[in-house]
């Protein structure tokens, strides 16, 4: 689905809990969140495992997100019947190009996730053109479950984002008010070692 207007929720390891207000296509900050993915100092606690974090693009205002130190990120689906977003970076390099991530050594992404009711959501990768790749449905229960997304065939050295999330496609849940809780996002190489995607800026 096309990424049209986007709203940004800054999340990750951000100095002094700074919240970025800009993104591609004149995005605005999501009013549903403080944007801080950790404690008041901006220190990451539960959303990411070792990765420093990334901003969250909310596509077409289709959901809101908030964070806390227990549940990581809590996503609440809007009323569109479809929702989606991308963990990426709203900054640009000196030439004005989008910041990208080297995901070429990432074989899988794991995360702890649950829903406010039994349901599902999808995950994917964003390539260098910001196109979704490897869209995969993930079943959700009301209990925390560690899930795995095998992504080796869909990643590259200049990926726009580190993880896309959404609902509606692949018959996944897009009910207004449905909540998805996600935390402990981790990246693993083919040898089974946790790694951190490099940021190119």
Report on the structure:
This protein is mainly beta and 201 residues long. Helix content is 0%, strand content 41%. The chain contains no helices and 15 strands. The strands form three sheets. Strands 2-1-3-6-12-9-10 form a seven-stranded mixed sheet, with no helix packed on it. The model is unreliable at 1-44 (pLDDT under 50).
SSE blueprint:
Layout: E1 6-9, E2 28-29, E3 55-59, E4 63-68, E5 72-77, E6 83-88, E7 100-102, E8 108-115, E9 119-126, E10 132-140, E11 145-150, E12 163-167, E13 179-188, E14 194-195, E15 198-200
Parallel strand pairs: 1-2
Antiparallel strand pairs: 1-3, 3-6, 4-5, 5-13, 6-12, 7-15, 8-11, 8-13, 9-10, 9-12, 13-14
Provide keyphrases for this structure.
15 strands; 201 residues; globular; 41% strand; mainly beta; 6-stranded antiparallel beta sheet; 7-stranded mixed beta sheet
In short:
It contains no helices and 15 strands. The protein has strands at 6-9, 28-29, 55-59, 63-68, 72-77, 83-88, 100-102, 108-115, 119-126, 132-140, 145-150, 163-167, 179-188, 194-195, 198-200.
């Amino acid at each position: 689905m096309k990424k049209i207007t986007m709203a940004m929720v800054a999340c990750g390891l951000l100095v002094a809990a700074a919240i970025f207000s800009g993104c591609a296509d004149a995005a605005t900050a999501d009013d549903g969140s403080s944007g801080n993915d950790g404690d008041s100092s901006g220190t990451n606690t539960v959303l990411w495992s070792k990765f420093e974090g990334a901003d969250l693009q909310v596509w077409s205002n289709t959901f809101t997100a908030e964070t806390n130190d227990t549940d990581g990120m809590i996503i609440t689906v809007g009323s569109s019947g479809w929702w989606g977003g991308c963990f990426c970076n709203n900054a640009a390099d000196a030439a004005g190009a989008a910041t990208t991530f080297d995901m070429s050594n990432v074989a899988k992404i794991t995360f702890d996730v649950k829903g406010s009711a039994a349901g599902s959501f999808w995950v994917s990768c964003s390539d260098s053109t910001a196109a979704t790749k490897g869209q995969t449905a993930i079943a959700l229960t009301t209990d925390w479950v560690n899930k795995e997304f095998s992504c080796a065939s869909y990643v590259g050295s200049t990926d726009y984002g580190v993880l896309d999330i959404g609902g509606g496609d692949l018959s996944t849940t897009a009910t207004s008010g449905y909540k998805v809780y996600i935390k402990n996002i981790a990246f693993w190489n083919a040898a089974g070692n946790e790694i951190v995607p490099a940021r190119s800026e």
